[in-house]
Please model this.
Amino acid sequence: MIRQPKLSDVITERLESMIVDGTLSAGEKLLPERELASKFQVSRPSLREAIQNLHAKGLIERKQGGGTFVSQHLNRRLSDPLLALISERPETQFDLLEFRHSLEGMAAFYAALRGSASDSAALRDALDKLNSEACKINADAEAEALGEFYMIMAKASQNMVLVQVMQAVQGMLIDNIKQNLAMLRNAYSAAGDDISIINNTIFQQRADIVSAISSGNPELARDASHAHLSYVEKTLLEINQKDATVQRSLRRIISNG
Model:
């Protein structure tokens, strides 16, 4: 005789799946008990038992008078303090760009392969946000919006491991993006070049990624992601080389002065 699973165990599994696939993120507040029971079409006692199961596993936290939250510590081993230390070291800037080739290229590939129409719509909305005036004038706002953009792309991939890794390193990636944007724009401004040129180039590269994902072309999406990061990497290398040349020239002037 096959034993039917308890309803609370079924609810527990559904909630666990939502945590694993990124539908529920670390630190996110769960709906109130009444609303959650209605959403799952189950009784409140069964839901309450499922919540207790998750609490016992350390997956959720209860705050007195504040509600129930997905645990903030789910990604602790992949986050602070080690990744914070890595992201703060200038020499890791290009290591992170190389890592992003793998992570974002894979996300773009599988988002194009498996993503839904609603995923494509969410990516287009995120792209529009990146093209807003707020993002054009504020590198911090653009970096945060870009973090959201890549998170949407990862979720569209329907790869649970990829989603969790992306969530775990998102803070580090946002910091890397901020550094890259600041260096690119400062270099263009210092040279007296039109900053809109690089802004338009980068936006078009991001639009190419979204277009390839929306058209369901995995190889093109991955290639578009690689092309964008290669452009950023090449430009940053050129800036660093120019800076090194300037520093050498200054040292010669000082030593001969």
Remarks:
- Confidence is low (pLDDT under 50) at residues 246-250, 253-257.
- The chain is about 75% helix and 5% strand.
- The two ends are 93 Å apart (CA to CA).
- The longest helix spans residues 218-256.
